[in-house]
Specification:
The complex is a heterodimer.
Chain A lengths: L2 E11 L5 E11 L3 E5 L6 H8 L7 E6 L2 E2 L4 H7 E4 L11 H11 L4 H14 L15 H13 L5 E5 L7 H16 L3 E5 L3 H7 L2 E6 L2 E7 H6 L3 E8 L14 E5 L2 E7 L5 H9 L4 E6 L3 H18 L1
Helix pairs in contact in A: 3-4, 3-5
Chain B lengths: L1 H29 L1 H4 L1 H22 L1 E2 L2 E2 H31 L3 H5 L5 H27 L10 H25 L5 H15 L12 H7 L3 H14 L6 H25 L6
Antiparallel strand pairs in B: 1-2
Helix pairs in contact in B: 1-6, 3-4, 3-6, 4-6, 4-7, 4-8, 4-10, 6-7, 7-10, 7-11, 10-11
Classes of the chains: A alpha/beta, B mainly alpha.
Chain lengths: 310, 264
C-alpha cells in the first residue's frame, strides 16, 4: 500500500527559540484512519500547521501522496483537506458562499462548486442553513461547515484537528459515522482528538506525540495489547462494608455498591468472578473505569515526562 | 505533459482570481452604508461648502472656476482613500478572523492572491470615484480633456494605494494599526497634494517641498486629464506611478511569499 503521508526528521523551532518538534518521523498509509494523539502543547497542531503550510518548518521533509512540500507545494495542497481546531471562516459570509468560495480557490468552476456544496452541506445537515451568516450557526454546525469546506475539492487526505471538540454526544456519533463513510470511500483520514474513545473506535493506526517527539507509532491493536492491567468497576447487588480480599485482584470499595478491581490481562475475568461468588457477592454489571486507550496514553505520556525531566 | 500541467495551473489560478475579486466586490457591496455612502455624503458637503459657498469668494483658479478646479482633486481623494481602505480593512479582517488561512492552505499563487485583493481595491476606488463624479455633475459641467490620461492615472493611482493598503494590512497587528497610516499620512498628504489649491500659490520653497508629495503628482495628472491644466509634467507623473506600482507590487509579493504576519 502506498504512502499518503510521509514525514522525515521534521523539526520546528519557533522565533522565540521554543522547539516544538524534535525531528519526528511519521508514516500514514493510503486509506488509513489514523489517530495523532498527544497532550496540549505536544506538537500536534504544529505538525498539522506545517502540513497545511500555515507553519514554516525548520528542517526535515514532508510528502503527501509523493508530492514534496518544498518542491510541489501546490500539488500537495490539492491532495490535502484540513479542518482546523479553531473556526477560521468569515463570520459575516453566508454558509454557501464560504464553501463555494473555497472551491474557487482550488480552481473549481462555479457550477461544479455549487453542486458539490449542495452535496456536502446536505450530507452534513447544513443545506437548510445555506443562506444564514456563518456567525448565526451553533458550535456543532460551525464544525460541520469546516468539514464541508475541507471536502469541497475532494482531497485524498483529510486532516481533522479535534473535530468533535465541544460537540454533543449525538452529533459526535453522527460525525463518526460520516467520517467512517468517507474513509470507506477511500479518503485517508488523520484525526487528532482529546476523546480517546473516539480514536479507539475510529482509527486503525496511531501515533502518540509528546514534547515534540513521537513516543508511540503502531497499530491500535498492537498498542492496546501493551495494556497489561485494566481497571473495572463492578456494580454490586448488595451493599458491602469492606472490600473483599481477592487473590491476584487488588480491589477497593468506591462506595457500598461499587467495587473497583484491577485485572491483569493474563489472569482474565473468570477467576475474579469465581472468587466473588465464593464471597457471596452478586455483580449486577461491569464497566471499564477509564477508556483502555486513555490508560495507555497516560502511562506513555507519564513515562515520557520522566524521560524529559531526567 | 508539462505544458498541460502549466495550462491547468493557469486555468485554476484564473478561477481563483475571479473568486477573490468576486468575494471582494461582494464584501464592499454588502456593507455599502460603510463603503459607498459615506464618501458620497462627504464629497457632496465638499462640493457645497468649498466649491459653492467658499469657492464663489475665491474666484478662478488655473483659469477655471474654483468648483471646476477642485472636482478632479476630490474624485482622486475618494479613489485614494477607498482603494487603500478596501484592501487594508479586507486583508486585515481576513487575518483577524483567520479566514486568510482558507487562501493560504489552497493552491493559489501569491500573484493571484495579490492581484485579487488589488483588483478589489481598484474596483472600490473606481466605484466611489464614479459615484463622486456623478454627484459632481449636479454642481458643475464636467468635460474630459484627455480620456487616456484620465483613465491611466486613475487606474495607476488606485493600484498604488491598493498595494499600499495591502502592505499596511500585512504589518498591522490590531485595528489601530490600520487607521494610523490613513489618518496621519494619507489625509495630510492628500490635503497638501493640490486638491484644493494650485502649488503656484505657494512660495518657491514650499513649491519645491510639495513636489516630493506623490499625491500631488497623481492629483495634477488627473486634473490634466479632466481640465487640461497641471502644476507638474504629466509624463514624469505617469512614469513615477508606473515605477511606484512595480516597486510596491514586488514588496507585496515578497511579504506574501515569506508569509510575514500570516505564517509562523
Amino acid at each position: 500500500m502506498s504512502s499518503a503521508l510521509s514525514i522525515r526528521q521534521l523539526t520546528k523551532i519557533y522565533g522565540n527559540g521554543f522547539q516544538a518538534l524534535h525531528g519526528i518521523d511519521l508514516e500514514v498509509a493510503e486509506g488509513d484512519f489514523f489517530a495523532l494523539l498527544g497532550p496540549n502543547g505536544a506538537g500536534k497542531s504544529t505538525t498539522i500547521g506545517i502540513l497545511s503550510t500555515l507553519v514554516n518548518k525548520t528542517s526535515g521533509s514532508v510528502e503527501v501522496f509523493g508530492h514534496d512540500l518544498d518542491r510541489e507545494p501546490y500539488a500537495l495542497k490539492r491532495c490535502l483537506g484540513v479542518v482546523p481546531q479553531e473556526f477560521n471562516f468569515n463570520q459575516f459570509e453566508k454558509v454557501l458562499d464560504i464553501v463555494v468560495t473555497q472551491a474557487g480557490y482550488y480552481g473549481i468552476p462555479a457550477r461544479l462548486a455549487k453542486e458539490r456544496a449542495e452535496l456536502y452541506l446536505t450530507q452534513l445537515g447544513l443545506w437548510e442553513k445555506r443562506n444564514a451568516a456563518s456567525r448565526e450557526l451553533s458550535g456543532g454546525m460551525k464544525r460541520r461547515l469546516m468539514i464541508a469546506r475541507a471536502l469541497i475539492h475532494q482531497p485524498r487526505l483529510l486532516i481533522l484537528d479535534e473535530p468533535t471538540a465541544g460537540v454533543d454526544i449525538e452529533l459526535r456519533r453522527s460525525m463518526w459515522s460520516f467520517l467512517t463513510e468517507l474513509n470507506q470511500q477511500g479518503i485517508t483520514i488523520i484525526l487528532t482528538t482529546h476523546y480517546l474513545e473516539e480514536a479507539e473506535q475510529l482509527c486503525r493506526n496511531i501515533a502518540i506525540i509528546d514534547h515534540g517527539r513521537i513516543v508511540e507509532h503502531s497499530s491500535m491493536k498492537e498498542l492496546l495489547m501493551k495494556l497489561h492491567v485494566e481497571t473495572f468497576l463492578l456494580d454490586l447487588r448488595d451493599p458491602l462494608r469492606v472490600a473483599p480480599q481477592l487473590n491476584g485482584y487488588p480491589a477497593r470499595l468506591i462506595d457500598n455498591h461499587t467495587l473497583e478491581v484491577q485485572v491483569e490481562k493474563n489472569l482474565g475475568l473468570n477467576g475474579l468472578f469465581t472468587q466473588l461468588a465464593g464471597h457471596g457477592i452478586q455483580v449486577l454489571s461491569l464497566r471499564n473505569k477509564t477508556n483502555r486507550l486513555e490508560e495507555l496514553f497516560v502511562s506513555l505520556v507519564e513515562k515520557n515526562l520522566t524521560k524529559v525531566a531526567v | 505533459m508539462r505544458r498541460e500541467f502549466a495550462q491547468s495551473e493557469l486555468a485554476a489560478n484564473w478561477i481563483a482570481l475571479k473568486t477573490i475579486v468576486h468575494r471582494e466586490v461582494r464584501r464592499f457591496l454588502r456593507i455599502w452604508p460603510q463603503t459607498l455612502l459615506p464618501p458620497a455624503i462627504t464629497m457632496v458637503l465638499y462640493f457645497v461648502i468649498f466649491g459653492n459657498l467658499i469657492g464663489r469668494q475665491i474666484g478662478d483658479m488655473g483659469g477655471f472656476s474654483y468648483m471646476d478646479y477642485i472636482v478632479p482633486g476630490l474624485i482622486m481623494m475618494s479613489v485614494i482613500t477607498n482603494a487603500y481602505g478596501n484592501v487594508v480593512s479586507s486583508f486585515f479582517g481576513s487575518k483577524f478572523q483567520r479566514n486568510v488561512e482558507e487562501l493560504l492552505v489552497s493552491p493559489v499563487s501569491a500573484h493571484t492572491i495579490l492581484l485579487g485583493y488589488t483588483i478589489g481595491g481598484v474596483l472600490r476606488g473606481l466605484a466611489v470615484g464614479l459615484i463622486v463624479t456623478v454627484l459632481s455633475l449636479f454642481f458643475t459641467r464636467l468635460q474630459v480633456h484627455h480620456l487616456g490620461v484620465t483613465v491611466v492615472v486613475v487606474l495607476l493611482t488606485a493600484t498604488i494605494f491598493s498595494l499600499g493598503g495591502f502592505i499596511n494590512a500585512v504589518f498591522a497587528r490590531n485595528f489601530d494599526d490600520i487607521s494610523i497610516i490613513p489618518t496621519f499620512v494619507l489625509t495630510p498628504l492628500t490635503y497638501l497634494g493640490g486638491v484644493f489649491y494650485s502649488i503656484s500659490m505657494l512660495p518657491p520653497f514650499w513649491q519645491t517641498v510639495s513636489l516630493a508629495n506623490p499625491i500631488l503628482h497623481m492629483v495634477n495628472a488627473f486634473r490634466y486629464g479632466i481640465l487640461g491644466v497641471s502644476d507638474i509634467r504629466i509624463g514624469v507623473a505617469i512614469a513615477f506611478m508606473l515605477v511606484a506600482s512595480a516597486v510596491l507590487y514586488a514588496i507585496c509579493i515578497r511579504l506574501l511569499v515569506s508569509g510575514r504576519g500570516m505564517r509562523q
